[in-house]
């Protein structure tokens, strides 16, 4: 066996080969097998291995579309190294248009999983044992949950300078400082020493061309940085500066009722700027929601009805523009 051969799920893939491996994880009640397609492209020249994942939550369509476009446009054919694409990791949730597994578990809260645990935990375990160790870098694509629309952003653990460099290379409009969550995919990558960029953009059960473009362009920027981008593609620098958000907070509904949002996500607002109104269905109450501070709105709740205490906007409280000298692509 050649030392450059990739052995994944019992399959051998040599340099220069392309392969689709169907990872069989479980069966439906009908005994129908459920497979997760894994698309692998290897260049003839050795190099790093980049793993791209989406659909950890089955209702997050934007991430699936980002990885799909990467494959369809042949961006995943590297100049050197290997690119492994998994457009839908939670195939059960995708089939049900649901965030979680049939057992009710959130796949992104059970990593690294257990061999004999719940269905979600078993998938996390085999993924962590058999696929993740091959990766030198990971790109993981998500959206906001439920009706909450996220501005396109990369989430980075604070004080991780190598990862911050890659986040700046990606060139999303925002970089959000965010601690790793216990038992998440990102936390498991960190413990294994694998740099992972978590991209957030848009909302569940929605496909947004603007969000998808940021994801695809950012992927090409990372591939360019790693020397893996094909010669027929070019880097995609953002026309605007990347904003680094060190701290942020949620603006919560002070009343229950109908929510009427008056601003767009991504917007920079001033203190006391008018953001939304909350009304009752009977024309008796109209409450104005105002910005508590100057900052960037990086998440907007698109739900038409809210309860008192619901999160309706996510606003930065401490932000800065990425340093231009560090922000350049290499």
TrEMBL record:
Q: Which intervals hold domain Succinylglutamate desuccinylase/Aspartoacylase catalytic?
A: 46-224
Q: What is this protein called?
A: Succinylglutamate desuccinylase/Aspartoacylase catalytic domain-containing protein
The record lists the organism as: Ulvibacter antarcticus
The protein's matches in PANTHER family, at most eight in alphabetical order, are given as:
BLL3975 PROTEIN, SUCCINYLGLUTAMATE DESUCCINYLASE_ASPARTOACYLASE FAMILY PROTEIN
A Pfam family: AstE_AspA_cat
Top-rank taxon = Bacteria
What start and end residues bound the annotated signal peptide?
Answer: none
Zinc is among the record's keywords: yes
Molecular function (GO) terms for this protein are:
hydrolase activity, acting on carbon-nitrogen (but not peptide) bonds, in linear amides; hydrolase activity, acting on ester bonds; metal ion binding
Is Nucleus tagged as a keyword? no
Q: Which InterPro entries match?
A: AstE_AspA_cat, N-alpha-Ac-DABA-like, N-alpha-Ac-DABA_deacetylase
Which cofactors? Zn(2+)
What are the protein's UniProt keywords? Hydrolase, Metal-binding, Zinc
């Amino acid at each position: 066996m050649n030392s450059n051969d990739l052995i994944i799920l019992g399959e051998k893939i040599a340099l220069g080969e392309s392969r689709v491996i169907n990872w069989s994880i479980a069966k439906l009640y009908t005994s129908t097998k459920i497979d997760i397609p894994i698309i692998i492209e290897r260049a003839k020249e050795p190099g790093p291995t980049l793993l791209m994942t989406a659909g950890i939550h089955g209702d997050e369509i934007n991430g699936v579309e980002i990885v799909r476009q990467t494959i369809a446009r042949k961006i995943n054919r590297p100049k050197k190294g290997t690119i492994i694409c998994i457009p839908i990791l939670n195939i059960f949730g995708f089939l049900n248009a649901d965030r979680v597994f049939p057992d009710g578990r959130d796949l992104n809260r059970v990593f690294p999983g257990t061999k004999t645990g719940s269905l979600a935990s078993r998938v996390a375990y085999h993924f962590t044992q058999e696929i993740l160790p091959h990766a030198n870098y990971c790109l993981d694509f998500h959206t906001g949950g439920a009706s909450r629309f996220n501005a396109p952003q990369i989430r980075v653990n604070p004080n991780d300078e190598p990862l911050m460099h890659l986040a700046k290379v990606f060139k999303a409009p925002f970089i959000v400082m965010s601690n790793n969550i216990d038992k998440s995919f990102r936390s498991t990558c960190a413990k294994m020493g694998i740099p992972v960029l978590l991209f957030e953009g848009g909302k569940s059960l929605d496909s947004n061309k603007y969000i998808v473009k940021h994801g695809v362009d950012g992927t090409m920027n990372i591939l360019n940085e790693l020397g893996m981008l094909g010669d027929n593609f070019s880097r995609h620098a953002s026309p605007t500066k990347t904003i680094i958000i060190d701290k942020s907070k949620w603006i919560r509904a002070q009343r229950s009722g109908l929510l009427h949002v008056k601003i767009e996500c991504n917007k920079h607002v001033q203190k006391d700027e008018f953001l939304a109104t909350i009304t009752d269905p009977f024309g008796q109450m109209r409450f104005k929601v105002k910005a508590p501070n100057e900052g960037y709105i990086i998440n907007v709740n698109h739900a038409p009805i809210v309860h008192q205490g619901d999160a309706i906007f996510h606003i930065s409280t401490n932000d800065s523009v990425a340093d231009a000298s560090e922000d350049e692509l290499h």
